[in-house]
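Here is my example:
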Amino acid sequence: MKLTDFLIGLEFMEGPFWWRCTDVGTRSIAAIKLVEDDPVWYVGPPYMIEEVVLDEARLAGCHLTEDEHIEAALVEADTSGHPGYPHEAVRRMTKARLKSRAYPRRGMFRFDRVWNDGEILHPYAAHQVGQEWKISFYLPFTQSWDEMPEMQFIALPIATALDVKSRSG
């Protein structure tokens, strides 16, 4: 969906959850997750449950129906060119992420980056070495692992769908 598709009160899917839009901004929306049984939780504003800001990256993954949501996931899986993540890679990344709870900038893990050679880097954890944070990442196309200083990692461009398609070719 696009920002212009949203209005206050609109219910939509993002990820595995239904949400209700509570505010529309110039680049993002605020929404509440519809997970409570009693509608009293949804009375507001202000709301008794957390309002979450969804930025333009998350808005692209929103859908008005469950069927649209499933269909988009199938199209993405069939056309993206992304090789996916083997079970053992997911297990290793999950264990490392649990150990890196002290890392203060967890949003770093939201976006893959692209190296100057076109390789896709999937960040999954961080650890501190002296005063510096190191970002651990997985390279899904080569199924290899590496790390680099945080400041070097954030200087890399965020990977786009076109970067993934180019790398898969």
User: Anything to note?
Assistant: The mean pLDDT is 94.
